[in-house]
Amino acid sequence: ETGVTQTPRHLVMGMTNKKSLKCEQHLGHNAMYWYKQSAKKPLELMFVYSLEERVENNSVPSRFSPECPNSSHLFLHLHTLQPEDSALYLCASSQDLRLFFGQGTRLTVV
Amino acid sequence: AQSVTQLDSQVPVFEEAPVELRCNYSSSVSVYLFWYVQYPNQGLQLLLKYLSGSTLVKSINGFEAEFNKSQTSFHLRKPSVHISDTAEYFCAVTPGYSSASKIIFGSGTRLSIRP
After folding, report:
1. What is the pLDDT of residues B72-93, one digit of tens each?
2. Nearest residue on chain A to B51, alpha-carbon basis
3. Quick one: which of A40, A58, B29, B113 has the fewest CB in 10 Å?
4. How far apart (Å, rounded) are the C-alpha atoms in residues A30 and A74?
């Protein structure tokens, strides 16, 4: 248990659906991250949020939309996804450059 | 931009044998380096990190890594592995210390221990 909770743990969605992934941390950390983990590929950094700024990977398609309403919650809104978006989506929070990961959401796009 | 290369996708070793997992990075600026481990059915967790000071850093379970600036490497070693070390190991790098630092990961190395 790292203190970072992701819901749901598993999600199957059609290409025309809209869904959201949720991440919650009560560690008092000041930054939160979304990563995409696909088999045999590097973890892909998608978005970083801190109190002062948002950083995004410019290669992330616009069908992924992050939202960070406060320092404890992070969402990833999904719409019109493609089958190649199927992956494990990991949320993490950080303090002093140390990342604390959630268990991830296994997303399957059909 | 920073990048991380882990050349070995899988490393099989016998129990009690030594192991080295290789990690090379590229960066035009100074970096901070990390190894994360993902045990079966668990999330990623920090194993060890190099921020400054001694180039040799150690974990509590016997792993160590050495930062080699001239070779841009941060290889992970253990002199004698145990079955419980079976996991996937990820090398990571970040260029800066800000509240929204980009932390870039390699593709991972799966360490499998044979009895």
Report:
1. 999 999 999 999 999 999 999 9
2. A97
3. A58
4. 12
pLDDT digits (tens, 9 = 90+) for B34-70: 999 999 988 899 999 999 889 999 998 999 999 999 9
Report d(CA A91, CA A47) in Å as an integer: 10
B110, B12 in Cβ contact below 8 A? Answer: no
Grouping H, G, I as helix, E, B as strand and the rest as coil, residue A84 is helix
Contact B107 A50 (CB under 8 A): no
Which is nearest to B88 in space by CA: A88, A23, A15? Answer: A88
Contacts of B42 in chain A (CB under 8 A): 103
The counts of H helices and E strands in chain A are 0, 11
Residues from B contacting A (CB-CB < 8 Å) are 4, 9, 32, 34, 36, 42-46, 49, 51, 90, 94, 97-108
Q: What are phi and psi of B113, to 5 degrees?
A: -105, 125
Give me the total of CB pairs closer than 8 Å, taking one residue from chain A and one from chain B: 67
